[in-house]
Amino acid sequence: MIAVQAALTGALIGGLYALMAAGLSVTWGVLRVINLAHFGLILAGAYLTYELVTGWGLDPILTVVVTAPVLFGVGACLQWAYERMNMVEFNSLLVSFGLLMVTIQLATNTWTADFRRLAATENPYATSSLELGRLILPTTTLLAFVIAAVFIGGGHLLLRHTFLGRGMRAFAQDRTVAAAFGIDHRRLGLLVGGAAGASAAVAGMIFTLTNSLTPAVAYEWFGIVFAVVILGGVGNLLGTLVAGVGVGLLSGLVSVIWSPSTEPFVLFLAIILALLWRPHGLFHRRGVA
Amino acid sequence: MTIRKGLSYLAAVTALLAVLAHFHSSVGIAPYSIVLTTTVLFWIAQATSWNLLSGYAGYFSFGQGAYVGVGAYSMAVLTGRHDVGFLWSIPIGGLLGGVLALAVGAVAFRLGSLRGEIFALLTLAVPFLLATFARINMDIDGGQGTVIALPAYPQWVGDAQHMLFYLSLAVAALAVAVALAVHGSRYGHGLAAVHDAEDAAEVLGVPTFRYKMVAIVLGGVLGGMGGAVFAMQIGFVAVESVFGLTIPLFVIVISVLGGRRHWLGPVIGAVLVVVLQDRLSAGGLESLENIVMGALLVGLVIVAPDGLYGRLRARPWLALGAFAVVLIGMSLTGYWAELDALLYAMFAAAIVATLADRFLAQPTPKSPDATFSPTRVAADRSGRTPQPAARAAGAADAGATEVAQLPLLHAAEALPGLAEAAPQAGEARAAEAVVGLGEAAPQAGEARAAEAVVGLGEAAARGRALVSCVGVTRDFGGVRALDGVSLQVFPAEIVGLVGPNGSGKTTLVNLLCGALQPTRGTVAIGGRPIGGLAPHRVAHTGVARTYQIPRPFESMTVRDNVAMAVMFGRTGASLSQARSKAQQHLATVHLGHLADVRPGSLNLHQRQLLEMARAIAAEPVVLLLDEALAGLNPAEIDDAVAVIRRIHATGISIVVVEHLLRVLNQLSTRIVVLDRGAVIADGDPAQVLSDPAVVRAYLGRQRA
């Protein structure tokens, strides 16, 4: 029973990983920008949420109304700069690594390295939970999963069924040809970068809802989020969601069966095995190389 | 600079530093300088060892902290708990760092689809994993970190700071010596080729996997040794201080700042970054340190991605001037501390060198092997007039020796112009032109002879098959690209391989050169099956190929591109031998006059000729030309066909993948037609091209 509980909680938390990974995966897949600064955006979203809740007394979930547009703007600006400087793949990895260091240090200088957590009075979701027989699902975790699933599902439908989404996929496959068919890659890029920023705002909010906050936590996201991106397949949103849930489930199980500290081993083993056997993600349909 | 000379300079500098440190009080050096220099030396060792794989071979690693950590923990645990002397702990730390690197490399480089970004992300994970490991196993550092007691050392050393200085100096000198030796050697050239075009390097005979493994292990050993000394320096080892992201950040900033393709780059970068960091903390701005470093990294990648080394080398005097002016000016005011003055002077030099190009006339770019820079202008000039040489080729090919005199006159006429521009270069070029023509004429004769032999008695001339595929099938997932293909290539043949798009031509070429393994069936070269052989081994059995989209080594001159193939080809040769041989091969394809330019300034036709020169430089028995004529205009096609004939005349069998049936009809001795992965015709060109099945495959059912 403990294992089932752990697996279920893990799977729900996996939704958060998936949401964190979604922005990274789409900018990597569509724009070929590996944006490590995305972790900085999530961190910024988390701290903004914290500020808005403790300072202004806003409902944590409502803060998204403020943070999402702000980070949409930041994400779009960032993408504009990458595009302007012609930063793709490797260079973008380096530049965004620098930006991430700057962001984390700025966060440390502003909010100190202390752990911060929303008090129970400020977080109306913290104390309630849903009970299904002997399984207990904390409301925060449940909310986190639902929001993440809605956001990613929406993104997936957009990509799959709208003209815009088709344009993006065309762009991801062959930029030159897509451009020749009238796809304005700059505007598209701004939109994707902005959407990634907004998703970071939501992910940050959810993280603040469920966890303690410290600037260095951004590093801890690295491993698990990249695991989700790679396992889900770069640029594949639905794959990201499934991979997120799977990774969360696995971590949950591992931490009750062995110990929580063995989680990273299992995760990285999973990434390496996945890279060996399914280099394009678990859900890639194989074709001619 | 030769390796020997470089090493002796390095030894002199190292000895000088050691002597200065020993007599520091007599020569008036502040003790703090020794502390600071020790830090500089640590970062020199780290950045230099990181640079072996990440700079030379271009595989960026975020995992340097892992090696430092392994070294540091080795020192802590061995000296603290097992009473191992610190002098022994340093090499053991290096050994363990090397073992870790071996493990990382063995996993990472085995991943077939490994691209640079994935490697970077994987290495990012390694320090995190080790940190977890150290946290779980409390007996490593008690979960809190562990103190390292200062060991006993001989009296003559001086104080503890001196001992740390000498140890750091030794490790840094070792790291720089290794980097220097690698940079100038055949191995270093191989790594540079991996950096520029790994696939092409592999099929030319560079054992890329082994080379990358050696680089990562060297980096791990040096990183581990540096880490062991670092542990003594900081006196307290904890998970956060070694496995965090500070070490990779600094190492990357240092190397990107200094320059990654030369051994001096990380040294320059380390001096600049450490002094900057020191001044920041002296000014009470530690909290800004990571911000400054991060911003520096961003700025560098945008403004000067190649680093300072190249810029300083292009304008040494200007940079030195700026350095001296600022240093002296600031020292004279007496208001600034020495280190401030030093920092600002270095920054002035760096900025002047970086921005000079924007405001002053373009300087002559210098190559690492400075032999050609003065002639570059002349080379570029003659680059615009390749026609005389090309004409000469055509004429010589047309038949007779007497015609060769005409282009000779042409060349002679062209000479005065060149001679004016750069007398020496002009002479060199004249000599080349003569050599090239002299060779071209007899070869043309041979070509006829060889063809005659094939024409006269094919059965007699066909000995053992050079290439033989039997029942080769290749699947990609559910798609069958080749289906039971059997094909043989005999000595002195030019086999034309044709077929509609998607019929499996390029897949077949990839199978023949070992880049792909067949799903079923066997491929043998010269009677020897190549199943399971790495492409560089297949290359050594005598197969060379060109790529449809040329993949030259962009950082090397045209000559060195070809010299690479000679060095790593079947025969193998030293760099200087290879360079002179390369010149001959370039003459064969008529690129001799462009030997000193970078591939970036060649046009498509010239790039394809370079591909061919590189391929024949490996001295193959079979040459695979993958659409070597694609995208050329008619005159260029004629020229390329002449080159192919000349290559054939030297005794190399050729497989040409091509769409231009007109050309193949003239050129090839036999045509093989592929359609949907199967051979549908194989035989005499005229016969094959009139075969109804072939016409149907190409033009559709109705026309047939």
TrEMBL record, chain A:
It is found in: Cell membrane. Belongs to the binding-protein-dependent transport system permease family. LivHM subfamily. Pfam families: BPD_transp_2. It comes from Rhizocola hellebori. This is Branched-chain amino acid ABC transporter permease. GO terms for biological process: amino acid transport. Its main location: membrane. GO terms for cellular component: plasma membrane. It is a multi-pass membrane protein. Coiled coil: none annotated. Keywords: Amino-acid transport, Cell membrane, Membrane, Transmembrane, Transmembrane helix, Transport. GO terms for molecular function: transmembrane transporter activity. InterPro entries: ABC_transp_permease (IPR001851), BCAA_transport_permease (IPR052157). The chain crosses the membrane at residues 6-26, 33-50, 56-78, 90-108, 135-159, 188-210, 265-283.
